[in-house]
Amino acid sequence: MTWVNAVVQGLLLGGVYALFACGLSLVFGVLRIVNLAHGDLTVLAAFLALVATSTLGLNPVLALVVVVPVMAALGFALQRLLLHRSLRAGELAPLLVTFGLSIVLQNALLQTFSADTRSLPAGDFGTAGLELGGGIAVGWLGLSTLVVAVAVLAGLQLVLARTPIGRAMRATSDDPETAALMGLDDRRVYAVATAIALATVALAGVFYGMRGTFTPTLGPQLLIFAFEAVIIGGLGSLWGTLLGGLVLGVAQTVGAQIQPTYGVLAGHLVFLVVLAARPSGLLRREEVR
Amino acid sequence: MTALLRVRDLDAHYGHFQALSGIDLEVGAGEAVAVIGANGAGKSTLLRAIAGQVPQPGGSRVEFDGVELRGLPAHRRARLGIALVPEGRKLFPSLSVQENLLVAAGAADRRARGGRRWGLDAVYELFPNVGRLRDRPGGALSGGEQQAVAIGRGLMAEPRLLLLDEVSLGLAPVVVEQLYAALGTIAATGVAMLVVEQDVGTALRLAGRVLCLRAGRTVLTGAAAEVTADAVTAAYFGT
Amino acid sequence: MTDTTTPAATDATGPVVVRTTRASRAAAVVALPVVALLAALPYLVAPNITRLLVGLFTLVLLATMWNLLAGYGGMISVGQQGFIGIGAYAVLVADLIGVNPYLGLALAAVGAAVLALPTALLVFRLHGGYFAIGTWVVAEVYRLVTVEFRAVGGGSGASVTGLSVFPPVLRGAITYWCALGAAVLAVGGVYLLMRSRLGLGLTAIRDEPTAADSLGVRVRAAKRVVFVVAAAGCGLAGALIAVDSLRVQPDSIYSVQWSAFMIFMVVIGGLGTIEGPVVGAVVFFAIQQLLEPYGVWYLVVLGVVAIAAALVARRGLWGLLTLDRDVRLLPTGYRLRP
Ligand SMILES: Nc1ncnc2c1ncn2[C@@H]1O[C@H](COP(=O)(O)OP(=O)(O)O)[C@@H](O)[C@H]1O
Ligand SMILES: [Mg+2]
Question: Are B34 and B224 in contact (CB under 8 A)?
Fold first, then answer.
């Protein structure tokens, strides 16, 4: 039964990873930039929520009302001020710039908040859950994280497929020069995409902060998990990203069941096996070119 | 009558290479002008400079409807009513045919408040086969179909000036025939056109005037009726 | 390149030979005495100064290796700490089995290179930014596997004990010579590698990406060589860190911070030049020494500077310097007068 429980908990954990990954996936899909500061931005969102809960006395879930718009605005500004210029400064520049940003964020957080371990106070919501019998309990928090992840991915999919801004994002991603001939301002389209991505990052940061603990230097680890979810699922497929997150979560909890120190390692190994055996990911659609 | 498009002393550079030198050109409202010339003469560069894809040097002037366009990026020019149908069609491969059309409609949103001339229905009426292909991905079409979608996409932006770059390139004569018939219909609605072709005969089916480029310079201009085949050949090859 | 009708082969070697002759003349005039002086330093200055310089030489080695990857190979790696860690642990292993830890330096370079081959097989399936994170995952795997071994101290690491047979002053001097040798070997080696056909091919592809397609297979092979060489260099650096600090701690030796340092040094010094990483290492080292007492704000400052350099000064400090020199080269006659 402990194994079944490990899988169930892994699926719930996978919900967080899928939530981490969708922002990374969106920015890559539209801007063709791999944002190496993605994990640190997630941690930043968690700290913003921490400040909001402690100064305004808000419940972390209510803090989302503040944190999501702030992160979205930050995404808009980030694209306008840094990423857009980096796109014009050569192939390596976006990576160098986002990595520099990662270091800046990490160390600024470290100086501001110290290296202490924090968590967001989720109250009863964080501890209560559903007894499924046989020693398997599903926490409300974990369950709602998974539901939010599925909702966010479905919402993103819908926006991309059905709305004018989603269409504009796909067109600009295909060919920004020609998109401009159609009256699309690539700066604006990219900025909107980055804003949406950082809104999902805010969600991910807050839910992660309620589930467990975080420190200013956690960002790189989160980036790696998001990245593994994206690659396991298949680049450019949002449902693949969900699947990738779930596979990663299950790999980690089952690995930890074997021996506690094997959790993260097991996730990495599953990632490497997928990379070796099926480099385009589990759900990669064949691209129409 | 003032010209819709007025180009004065236009230069264009790619790095140190000068692709256009001192081009003068006027296109009246509703008028069609042909631009001809051999490969590499600078025809595409001329259209790209008007559309805002090539930087405009200080001394050059490009006026559209009496407004100087210098410094205006391509997307702003598109919203003013300049639509470029680029060489090679350049459809968005991950968008369906209908989405390819819709993506350009936004360019006209502000100007078209009083009512659209070109919506999906009008484009499908003009190119019936495009309507049948509406759910296909933009990347999975024949050359002629792609060209029809590219022209339709340009129309969705409600252009006052349509810039057409080598519509006939690589297409069978019957297909070119159909496309030019459609372009005739478009011209009749009062859309001005700048038609780039390598083949004089094709271009002159629409255009009343012709401009011939060689090595980035104007080597011949005149009314279609007045330029002789010999003059064109001489201008074209520089003999 | 004025005569485009010259066959490509002579076209490629012609001007390059001229350039390298000039460069090697400059190197002979400036670099050789400098290296000779540096080599004599243990006899001239106090051990704490040479100890500091070991840190600097290690940084030069690391920066040069990262520049080889990114500046010439076009590969941004954020996982070189994996090979640094492997190198450091190679010293520990050598120590454990009773081999002189200085011999462990060679073992470290070889071990890292050997491990780089299967690593390349995996990470070369990824491109651009995903390649970067892929290398990082591999480095994490190295770390997580390493801490499973009790013999090398598990999660808390272990000390290098075999060096206690040397008197401290001699040990410091040997470590210093090893570090100096490694830095010179790295800079000289990359210089020679870039002069070779492999290097010329890489440079040609960097400058003319359309050529890459026709040369696809050879490019892959060249990139693999670059990856393996860079891994060996980083392994050597890790070993130097181990023999210098006499202690290996997994979380710090496998820290992504090393990648941050390498990127800062190369981007600030000048990506894709031989001299840039050296300049960058010196500047970084100076900033680190001056500002480290004030906490990690110096990393924030360096991050901002690196972002600015990546955006506006793509050839970094060295690019700015050589631009100056080009300007000064024009009025040579006046320059020589005093
Ligand atoms: N992106 C570019 N970079 C450099 N040179 C270019 C570029 N595009 C075109 N050229 C050069 O400019 C000249 C004019 O090109 P173009 O306008 O495409 O000619 P045409 O359309 O008449 O065939 C040619 O010599 C071409 O090689
Ligand atoms: Mg052309």
Answer: yes
Q: Tell me which chain C residue has its CA closest to the CA of residue A93.
A: C310
pLDDT tens digits, C246-286: 999 999 999 999 998 999 899 989 888 888 899 999 999 99
A181 touches chain B (CB under 8 A): yes
- Cβ of residue B37 lying under 6 Å from some atom of ligand 1: yes
Q: What is the mean pLDDT of residues A127-152?
A: 86
**What is the predicted pLDDT for the residue at C13?**
41
**Nearest Cα residue to A90 out of C287, C312, C49:** C312
Residue B55, both tokens: 């930087």
More confident of the two residues B48 and C165: B48
Inform me whether the C-beta atom of residue A163 falls under 8 Å from chain B C-beta atoms.
no
Hey, how many other C-beta atoms are within 10 angstroms of the C-beta on C307?
Answer: 23
**Domain topology for A2-277:** ABC transporter involved in vitamin B12 uptake, BtuC (1.10.3470)
**Which residue in A has a C-alpha nearest to residue C126's C-alpha?**
A279
* Ligand positioned closest to the Cα atom of B43: 1
**Protein residue closest via CA to atom 5 of ligand 1:** B14
Pairing assessment for the beta strands B82-85 and B161-165 based on DSSP bridges? parallel
ipTM over 0.85: yes
Ligand 1 atom having least distance to the Cα of B196? 21
Distance CA(A77)–CA(A79), nearest Å, equals: 5
Interface check C267 vs A, CB under 8 A: yes
Give, in order, the Cα–Cα distances in Å from C233 to each of A269, A283, B40. Answer: 26, 38, 49
Kindly state the tokens that stand for B147.
Answer: 């060209």
- CB contact at 8 A, C272 and C67: yes
Domain ranges of chain C: 16-255
Helices of type H across chain C: 8-26, 32-44, 47-67, 81-96, 101-123, 128-146, 168-195, 197-207, 210-214, 216-245, 250-253, 257-269, 275-291, 297-312, 316-329, 332-336
